[in-house]
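Regression check, glutamine case 555:
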Amino acid sequence: MPKAAGPKFIIVSGGVISGLGKGITTASIALLLKSRGYKVSPIKCDMYLNVDAGTMNPTEHGEVFVTDDGMETDQDLGHYERFTDIPLSRVNYTTAGQVYSTVIAKERAFAYGGKCVEAFYDVTEEIIGRIKAAAQGAEVVIVELGGTAGEHQNVLYFEAARRMKLKYRDRVVHVHVGYLPVPGSIGEMKSKPLQQSIQNLNALGIQPDFIIGRSEKSIDRKRKEKIALFANLEPDDIFANPDVGSIYEVPLVLDEQGLTDRLIERLELPKSKKDLVPWRSLVGKIKSTDAPLKIALVGKYFGTGDFTLEDSYVSVIESLKHAAWAVGRKPELFWVDSEKIERDGPAKLAEMDGIVVPGGFGDRGIEGMILAAKFARESGKPYLGLCYGMQMMTIEFARNVAGLVGANTTEADPKARHPVIHVMADQEKKLLKLDYGGSMRLGAYEMALKPGSMSARSYGKPKVSERHRHRYEFNSDYRRVLEKAGLVVAATSQVGKLVEMVEIAGHPFMVGTQAHPEFKSRPLKPHPLFVAFAKAATREESPLATPKFQAIFSD
Ligand code: GLN
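Current build output:
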């Protein structure tokens, strides 16, 4: 029988518990195949009825990652971009909310021609259509199914996966990621929960082709044989994903066990030569740096019950790591709750090499962020303000240097005496209509940098494009008075001349950007602004761009 042409699909599902690093596994598979020369395209299928991730609380769902085309997506897209260095778009992210809205809109437009519209046929077809659309000319689509096997709410995604296998046969491979606990009281790796998860998959009509076992330790042969027996597989189809020092080691761990070769073989992809060399040297560099670089991240989306969650700031955290490695340091990051600074003052920040105030919304904790900016300005500690962090830095400067008592953002104080940060005109109309979904100033915009500024020297070029996600902006009515007091407007947007970056003249490094450069940092291409900040934080030499320094991040 002739083989059907078209893209191949690797479907990645999860089992036993959430938080197994399915996103990292998907990103790793994408990187491994890309490094062998195949064109890949990942897609995340979220089970939520939210249309996008923009309206979700970061402490509940993690960071909202923004693509160039302005889609507010799940944080896993950030991992895909960081691992593959492929800029993704809205076709790489779908939610049950998008799927259902499309099906309902089509029904209302009589697109089903009077037929009874059914979830198991029409919703699954819509899902399959979206997965196929994500290919965009790629040879392999890597599909991450949100949630775990056996949950009622994602059953239609699994049904779509089952049908894809039925329809495309040899072009579909299913990889199941499950958990292998080593309970402290027993001290032995237990495989029963994973066996049950495989049974859940089987009950959904899916036979996995490969199993990846997440655990503290590697999986021994005895357990591989046992898992294989219950999964109708060979022991060589079971791969271990043990705890490693950095997420960037995961692709190497999987590749060493032969996962890339097995995927290529199973999908009958044309043979190609291996090239993981740059990634391998990155991991080598990560492991060999030990002089610490201490960075405080002053935010408010850390707490969830008794636990601290880093997911809300994952791209910022990863960007700081990339930059620290680029300057030969080991990143040591400290989560500083801005509400704690409000209570206890900024003294803790004195121990740090640098301070980052990331994005945020609402009035809770902002006085702590403003105190952090004041501390950085007065002490000469390197400071990087990202979106809200730039707005906080502007307010601090307005209040304490320009003498504008009562300066604030109208987001926190609608009646601020000096609204140095105010709502954008079009955004105000949207807020009045309660139009909250996907309606911020989103996606990539170009900005022109002020020649000679710290920002321009950091980027090493006069124009850059960065991704945005905000409703409020620097109020240009205050531009003159703030500039007169010493604030440098370091970048303005090409369209509309919005103030996009500010910095403090004479400070070793105090830069704020309205954008989210953290979405564009890659481990192999650390972001220039983060590198310049990290370099300033080392205090080894002036952060002013030297030719050697420029070479680190020039494209
Ligand atoms: N809350 C601010 C605004 O909407 C900043 C947004 C952000 O940090 N992403 O403008």
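Comparison notes: The two ends are 47 Å apart (CA to CA). The CA atoms of residues 72 and 124 lie 23 Å apart. No diff flagged against the previous build.
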